[in-house]
Write a structure and sequence with these properties.
alpha+beta, Multidrug efflux transporter AcrB transmembrane fold, 5-stranded mixed beta barrel, 6 strands, globular
């Protein structure tokens, strides 16, 4: 079977698995009571019941909306917008805003309508389409395979990993199994069923195993627990007090850096493949040295990527510490900051380790035979 046919067959298998995952329901959790959801245009607001405490608003905002879709399109109704006083969750609307409305219609007429936030689904769908178009335009067939891997990864996390955790499966073992599956699918989809794909997979897995071990070691050394993550405490109160939040936190550390690890491993493996293609006579040691020179260059920028990615999502938190004039020791010693420090440094260990691991594995795989590149 040719390389193209192997890739097509592999992609077909992944597509079929995506279809299976889309209909999978492992947790069998009954859906929350809900009604009809549709877009609606805010035509009027009543703020008479809203209570303002400095910059925080609580109580109820009453809206008058016109339904823009659904079985009752064109009808107008009253909508309740509950304000809890938490700015990260609440939204305050003005006339002309398009929102998502949820309501019931027991007698054929819409009643008990509640606002579910500004309508963003259409723009999100457009962004996904634009992402897919750009991916295919830049990477061609490889972009199509990368997009398929992206969908598969999202479905595995949502339909497999999260439900298994809710069912009480051990987070570390489950996380390692899931990340191994994702690494295999992504590496072989993008790199092909070749020695390049195999080197990427093996190097990535070694880096992630190191990250897992270090994350477990330093999480206990830092005396951290999984409740430092948002919504973790709410999860316990939602009927899952048996969950081991600390192990879930450890699993999140090596899963979060797995993308960067695979990215770097693919760069190194592709470089080793190209070196062998351009210089078939290159020796094992020189092949390794050339790969390591490339690995040193890309490793530096990749570790900075992790720093910027994790730090950028907590800008407001850092600004609060700075605005209050607190010393750096207080900042770094806070549990939620220590958790991010662990994320950055342990993830960087995995990124650094994956370069030499991939170089050695690729050099051994290419020691005999022809490279992947045509």
């Amino acid at each position: 079977m040719s390389a193209i046919r192997r890739d097509l067959f592999f992609s077909l298998i992944i597509a079929c698995l995506c279809l299976v995952l889309a209909f999978l329901d492992l947790a069998r959790i009954p859906p929350a009571p809900s009604g009809i959801r549709c877009r609606a245009l805010v035509t009027g607001v009543d703020n008479s019941q809203v209570r303002t405490h400095l910059i925080v608003k609580t109580n109820v905002q009453l809206l008058r909306v016109r339904l823009l879709a659904g079985p009752h399109e064109g009808q107008e109704l009253e909508v309740v917008n509950m304000l809890t006083g938490k700015m990260e969750l609440d939204e305050f609307y003005q006339p002309g805003t398009t929102i998502l409305v949820e309501y019931s219609a027991p007698g054929g007429q819409p009643v008990n309508a509640v606002a579910r936030g500004a309508y963003r689904l259409g723009l999100q769908l457009f962004l996904v389409g634009l992402f897919a178009l750009l991916l295919v335009a830049v990477a061609g067939v490889t972009g199509l395979k990368a997009g398929l891997s992206f969908i598969f990864a999202a479905l595995v996390l949502w339909k497999l990993f999260f439900p298994l955790l809710l069912l009480g499966y051990p987070p570390l073992a489950t996380g390692l199994g899931i990340v191994t599956l994702l690494t295999a699918v992504i590496c072989f989809s993008v790199g092909g069923l070749t020695r390049r794909g195999l080197a990427t997979f093996a190097g990535s897995l070694l880096g992630l195993l190191l990250t897992c071990g270090l994350a477990a070691l330093f999480t206990h050394g830092f005396r951290l627990h999984g409740a430092v993550r948002p919504f973790a405490e709410m999860l316990l109160y939602s009927g899952y007090p048996h969950l081991n939040l600390t192990d879930i936190f450890v699993a999140s550390v090596f899963i979060a850096c797995s993308g960067a690890v695979m990215d770097l491993a693919m760069d190194i493996a592709a470089t080793m493949d190209e070196l062998k293609h351009r210089h078939p006579e290159i020796g094992l040691i020189e092949h390794m040295r050339s790969g390591l020179r490339v690995g040193r260059a890309v490793t530096g920028t990749m570790t900075t990527t992790l720093l910027l990615a994790y730090s950028g999502s907590h800008i407001a938190m850092f600004m609060v510490f700075l605005a209050k004039g607190l010393p750096p020791a207080n900042l770094l010693n806070a549990p939620f900051v220590a958790a991010e420090v662990l994320n950055i440094l342990v993830g960087s260990f995995g990124v650094i380790a994956v370069a030499p691991c991939t170089v050695v594995i690729a050099a051994l795989l290419y020691r005999h035979g022809q490279p992947t590149a045509p």
